[in-house]
Amino acid sequence: MMHILQWTYVATLVVLLTTWPVDPAHAEGAKPALEPPNEQANLPARPLLYFLEHFSLRESAFRYDEDIQALISNPRNAGRVFARLFAKAAFRASRLPNFSADTAFEETRSFISQIGFETIRRGDYAIHLVKMPPPKHPNEAFFVAIVYNESAPLIEGSAASSTRYITLEKTRVEHKAVALGEWSSEGKYTTHGFGDRELAASEFLANLYALIGLKQQSAPDATADSPS
Length: 228
What we know:
There is one protein chain. By secondary structure, the protein is α+β, with helices and mostly antiparallel strands. The protein has six helices and seven strands. The chain has a seven-stranded antiparallel beta sheet with strand order 6-5-4-3-2-1-7, with helices on both faces. A hairpin with a 5-residue loop joins strand 5 and strand 6. Helix 1 (4-19) packs parallel to helix 4 (78-93), helix 1 crosses helix 5 and helix 3 packs antiparallel against helix 4 (78-93). It starts with a helix and ends with a strand.
């Protein structure tokens, strides 16, 4: 269970980031750094969760910043890391008409309690698997996988060319249940394929291994933890 001081920290961050003056780069008419994969008219139904999965966590992973390093080095502190990432997501989400600052704190607490984190190592690869809250709407993720090639240098603040950010999402495509997607470090979104049903973590990983060119093994080395 998270300490009450940590929830005070979350609430403070959410309030600050949703009321802070808009940066000129984010002003009306400016093109955002990240475009959602769906049409702008189809606003994400839960913008706080959407922008965590598709913006703040993605940015942290590619920048290899202090948040992603803290999450990897000590998953038991994941609650505090995700509190900061949700606060950053709230700043982006606050520009959408269906975002409510009044419910952001409770939403953040609920979402964090449902997130799981696991690291799997295969050869030179470290796959950091994030189990997300169950998706209810298109483009919300079941899983996010952050893939680092540990034989390549990881430098804080810059994206390594080998870094991958891969998602398994609920899709709006007719007669399909899931989509396997990927964000590049430049903010380009690619759909790799669709599935007829929801996938278990092991099935998602099997698809991920094929995507990055790894042979599946029978007994992966894994460590698991939850933010709560």
